[in-house]
C-alpha cells in the first residue's frame, strides 16, 4: 500500500492541462476556453503559500498554480540563509525591534505600518511551517535555532542548515500536494488582459506544445519573482526568473514601484555570481583584501562583515576600484575566509557553501579562501499594491505577492532573512484577498484575452517564419547584462545612466528586428528566450528611468554625483508606468514614515 504513495505519484496526480479546464461558451463566438476561479502564476514559496490559503479559505473554488518548470526549480530553492521572525526565544527582541532593523536596513524607504503587521505575523507562520514539517535546525533543548545575520541587531534568523529556501519550497509543495492543489506546469505567462478597467483573463503559452491560449479566471495572483536577471552575466537569480509578471503588469496598465532598487549581494562566486550565503558571515567568515586586511573596518566599523548588504557590497567594490582587490577586470575580487572556523561545524552546518565553493571555483573553503565579488541578487521594486491587507493592485482581480510585489517591505535595501518571510506573509495576505475577490466576482467573457492570444499567435508566426539569426538575440542579451552591470550597478552617475538610457533604446529597436528562424512550436526554447528577453529589456528601461530620476543615494541606489540621502525631495517611492504609446513615465508617491521618522543610518 505504502509503495504506491510516492511524492512522484502525488505530483503526477496534481498536474493538469489547459484542456482539463476547458469550458464551452467562454472567449466569445461559442469558442471553448480554459477557466478556473483563482489562478496563481508562479510556484515558488509565495505562490504556493498563496495557494494553500486559497485552498483553506475557499475549498469550493478551483485554484490552479501555473509554473514554467517543476515547482522545485524555483528561485526560492536558491535562498539559503534563513527566515527572520521574533519567536520569543531572545528576551531583548521584539516586533518593534525587528521593524526598526527593517526600516533602518531599507534606508527609511520602508512603508512602516504594513511592515509592523509583517513583523507581527511572521512568528505564527514560522511555527506553522515547523508544524508542516520544515526541518529547522534546533538547539540542544529542541527550540528552533537562530543565528546572526547582516543588518539585524538581534538573533532572529531561523534556518535549516544553509538550505532554508530549498526546505521551505519543498515543505510548502508537499502540503499543497496533500491538499490536492492543481499544477499547470511548463506554461509561461505572456500577457494579462484588461477590458475597460476590468480584469479579463490571461494569455499562456504551453512550452511543450507551443499552444497559445487564453485562460479566463475570476482573479489572478502574480507570484513570478524578481528581475535581477536583467544583469544576465552576473546574478544569483535563476535563468527562468525573467520578471514575466512585472512586465505583463506594466503592459496592462499597472505601476512598477521602486524599480531602481536592485540589491547586490556581497558574496557571489567570482565566475557567474552564484550565491554564497550570508550564513557564511553569520558563522564568522572574514572578508579580506589583497593586503590581508579585514577591510569592512572602514565601512561598517561596528558591524564589520555583518553590516547591511548594500554597505558591504559598496565596500568590496571600493576596495577593488582603489587597487586593494585581487585580479583585474572581470577577474577582480576579494576573499571570503573561513579557515579560522571550526571545520566540523562548517562542513555539517553549512554544507551547501562547501559544495558551491567546490562546484563553481574548485575551492576547498575549509582550507583556502574563496574568490568572491558582489552579485545582482534581489529586487526591492515590483508591482504596485493598492491594499497591502489583500495584496490587490489598482485593477480589481489582479493580486501580487513575494518578490514580484512592492508594498514596500524592504525599501531601498532588503534586510537579510526578510525575503523568505516575505514570501509566506504576503503569500498568505494575497490568498485571503484572492479568495474574497473570487467569491464575489463572476467570470468575464474573455474577449480581450482571446484577442491578445490571437495577437501572440501572429507574433509567433512573424518572429519564427522570417529569415534571421538567433545568435543576434543572444548577443543582445549579453550586451544588456554588461551595460547594466557597468552603468546601473553598485555605483551610478548621471553620465552613465543617460548613456545607458540611449543604449537601452537602441537595444529595444534591435530587439524589434530579432527573428527566431524556427517555426516549430514544440519545445521552441529560442522563442521562450525571445519572450523573456523582451520582458528583461522592458524592466531594464524602467529601472534606468527611475535611477535617473532619483538624484540622491539611498540604500542600494548609490549616485556618485549625489552621494547623500535627500529626504526633503526623495523620501518617496518611484512609480513607473507604460503609456499607450509605448513610452515610460515616472512619478512619485509618499512613503509611510508614521512610526519612526528618518534619521542618519550608521552601522
Summarize the structure.
This protein is of the alpha+beta class.
Characterization of this structure:
There is one protein chain. The protein has 603 residues and is of the alpha+beta class. It folds into three domains: 2-26 and 33-78 and 167-255 and 424-448, FAD/NAD(P)-binding domain (3-Layer(bba) Sandwich); 263-376, Succinate dehydrogenase/fumarate reductase flavoprotein, catalytic domain (Flavocytochrome C3, Chain A, domain 1); 464-590, Methane Monooxygenase Hydroxylase, Chain G, domain 1 (Up-down Bundle). The protein has helices spanning 7-14, 45-57, 95-105, 112-131, 164-178, 244-251, 279-282, 309-321, 343-349, 351-361, 418-440, 447-465, 470-487, 494-512, 525-549, 567-570, and strands spanning 22-24, 32-41, 63-67, 83-84, 146-147, 157-158, 182-185, 187-195, 198-206, 212-222, 256-257, 262-269, 286-288, 334-337, 370-379, 382-384, 398-400, 405-406, 572-578, 584-590. A hairpin with a 5-residue loop joins strand 19 (572-578) and strand 20 (584-590). Helix 2 (45-57) packs parallel to helix 5 and helix 13 packs antiparallel against helix 14. The longest helix has 25 residues, at 525-549.
